[in-house]
Design a protein that fits this description.
Helices cover about 50% and strands about 15% of the residues. The chain has nine helices and seven strands, in the order E-H-E-H-H-H-E-H-E-H-E-E-H-H-E-H. It starts with a strand and ends with a helix. About 30% of the residues are buried. The protein binds adenosine monophosphate (AMP). Adenosine monophosphate binds next to helix 2 and helix 3.
């Protein structure tokens, strides 16, 4: 199953992606995770990435497109993939269409997790993660246990200031993908603010299993 996960920053894509990956046996391909790994490695490219992510701006299409082409060509993507955080612009979506055509593959669904901006602000600024395990917490909704309280960190782009810029980028550059995929009959809208994460997961699974 070849899937795209679309939704604004903080809409819960990362949390839901884990369940989809386990349920359908396909890898999660998160461009944000790949970019953060390059930043941690401290390569020259990583440093270039950081100048964009810290400003809440999108990394240039060409760099991201190449990263994704490389990742999707690996063996673990043969049964399918869940793209998380890609495409984020119409240029990226067109590059993905061309890549998939070359690979004789086609998208099955584009899931859109819908959450209002006001909800995203609270979710994102409270988000903390454990650098050792990658587990994500929320200081109010899902606080880390006391023994991890000192260890958890905030992503440098999860501040209110950077989030506002990321949301601006989302509405200007990523939101046009909604009509793009709607026109192709691939868009599946999922209510992402109401209910528990498990209830939202069940909504997604109902679509994927239909
Ligand atoms: P994310 O973890 O998906 O929120 O991504 C974090 C940051 O990585 C974004 O704010 C962008 O700076 C960069 N990024 C991730 N995916 C992409 C993409 N597909 N195109 C451009 N920039 C991206």
């Amino acid at each position: 199953m070849d899937l795209i996960f679309l939704g604004p920053p903080g809409s819960g894509k990362g949390t839901q992606a884990k369940w989809i990956v386990d349920g359908f046996g396909i890898p999660q391909v998160s461009t944000g995770d790949i970019i953060r790994a390059a930043i941690r490695e401290g390569t020259e490219l990583g440093q270039e990435f950081k100048s964009y992510t810290d400003a809440g701006k999108l990394v240039p299409d060409e760099l991201v497109n190449r990263m994704v082409a490389d990742r999707l060509s690996r063996d673990d993507c043969k049964p399918g993939f869940l793209l998380d955080g890609f495409p984020r612009t119409v240029v990226q979506a067109e590059a993905l269409d061309a890549l998939l055509a070359e690979m004789s593959r086609a998208l099955d669904h584009v899931l859109l997790l819908e959450v209002a901006d006001i909800v995203l602000l609270e979710r994102i600024t409270g988000r903390r993660s454990d650098p050792e395990t990658g587990r994500v917490f929320h200081i109010k909704f899902d606080p880390p246990p006391p023994e991890l309280a000192e260890r958890v960190i905030q992503r440098s782009d999860d501040t209110a200031e950077v989030l506002n810029k990321r949301l601006e980028e989302y509405h200007a550059k990523t939101a046009p993908l909604v009509p793009y995929y709607e026109g192709k009959g691939l868009l599946r809208r999922i209510e992402g603010a109401k209910g528990t994460p498990e209830e939202i997961r069940d909504r997604i699974f109902a679509v994927l299993e239909a």
